[in-house]
Amino acid sequence: MPAWTIPDKKIVAIIKSIEDAYDTNSLIIFGVNYWPLIRLEIREQLINQEKFNFNKTEKSESVIKTKGKPSNLWKKIKSFYVLWEKIFHECLFRCRGIKKISGTRTDCLFLTLDGDHREILNDKKYSAEFDPLIQQIPANIKVKKILYDCGRHNENSYYIPAHGVNPKGYPIQFIILKKYFKVKTWKSINIDILNQVISQETNGLVRLEKEVIVDKITSLLTYSRFFCHAFHQIKPKIVFMSTYYNVAWMGAILAARKMNILTVDVQHGCQGKIHYMYSFWSKTPKEGYDLLPQFFWVWSEYFARVHREWIPSDCSKHKVIIGGHFWMYKWINSNFNHFNPECNLFFNELSSYEKIILVTVDYTNPPILPHLLDAIKKTSGRWMWLIRLHPLLKSNLYDFLNFFSSNGIVNVEIEKTNTYPLYPLLEKVDHHVSYMSTVSFEAAAFEKPTTIIHNVGFVNMYKFIQSGNFSYADSSEELISSIEHPISDFEDLKKILNVNFVDSNIALNNLFKEAGISCHLTLKENNQ
């Protein structure tokens, strides 16, 4: 697993310098501009300079294995493909989940992953990005929710049931189609000059391997073919997703664009000016990018401005829609305590501690920063530290448990902290400590102060630290002091979050109008 070693601010600066030095809009394969895929690969290599390791900083081995040019089997593959094409289509129609939900009218389709369902409500998995929106849509609007690339799953284990689909359920057909695209792509791509520019702008840290890029493009085209068939069966008018920047979702966007279906990326974190896939698109063509969604659902005007800076005024393919932070609104304005009675009992057990601190940990080297560890030791018996891991670190939970146990530390809690939803934790703690997490902004909605303790977080959050919205500490003494004497002004950060119910209704109404869906939401109808 990669560790955060390069600030996002530096990554977007590198990407912009590459766009300035090279005509990225010339990267066309089969009529598709694949520069967004190249951006993903550049960023992946930059952050993969070090791997996440509990004991030491370990230089990563090359994650790219060059397999060489595909064997010259074009004629055989082409004829084999024709033979399998019909079978493949039929298999796609029968793909687990697609046939089950096809044939009926669909207005809104939500593409989700199991990892999107990070919250637990009533012992069921809940998606903070999607489920509040689905609950907001009136019953006369037909909604379907897909759980993509899943294994066996129980639909009833989700708060809002999700239909599982898996294009790799028919691996032979999937591999054949991907091989077909790979052979067609190989001779069409030339990245030698681009590599020279990238090497110069990254001081040799990044090098694109043709095999890797061809594999990403062929995967994208294969997923696009799958989603073309899926959308043909389901017939959605709007497709919602979150974190659009993965090969499968980009394939879905490409398919939707071909079929004139609206695509919406729902904001999942603080996607500000230093996010490598939401900012610094300095050469956006007026026809837009084929692999970027048509609409960006953002929380507030603050984030809308980030997108407007790179979307040309004459570009109709990418638009910003201010929808508010609806999950935050529902949480703050509703009584959700009955969903998690165990969480209340948990905090009752901690009532003897003077302070309770929530720590949001990202994948860095070392995983537990020395001055954080020192502060925990110095407050033993007085303060309780709740260690909440980044979703990508959940599989390392027992490594963290063993680490604290081996250091004789007892005033930390990890297991329950990573089980309960985030917001009840923020409601009940005294302070939030973060490496670089955007939870820092969400903490402000509950009027809980945040101290940033990682140097990458300092660079990423510098504007807010300088403005006095967050504290910064690079020693245990400073960290303890910032908790004892916290910042108490949260109004600027609350405006950025935009916990606004009306904005959500306006955003949905605008989307429905664009898609030709007859509906009009009002505050009175759905204030629940």
Describe this structure as you would to a colleague.
It comes from Methanospirillum lacunae. This is UDP-N-acetylglucosamine 2-epimerase domain-containing protein. The chain is an alpha/beta fold and 528 residues long. Among the domains are: 8-76 and 177-292, no CATH class; 339-496, Glycogen Phosphorylase B (Rossmann fold), CATH 3.40.50. Helices cover 43% and strands 13% of the residues. It contains 22 helices and 19 strands. The strands form five sheets. The chain has a seven-stranded parallel beta sheet with strand order 9-8-5-10-11-12-13, with helices on both faces. A six-stranded parallel beta sheet has the order 16-15-14-17-18-19, sandwiched between helices. A two-stranded antiparallel sheet has the order 1-2. The longest helix has 25 residues, at 210-234.
Give the termini distance in whole angstroms.
Answer: 41 Å
Rg, alpha carbons: 24 Å
Shape: globular
Strand content: 5-15%
What integer is the average pLDDT? 83
Low-confidence stretches: 56-67, 82-87, 524-528
Helix content: 40-55%
Widest sheet, order of strands: 9-8-5-10-11-12-13
Largest sheet: 7 strands, parallel
| Total beta strands | 19
Structural class comes to alpha/beta
How many helices? The count is 22
Protein name: UDP-N-acetylglucosamine 2-epimerase domain-containing protein
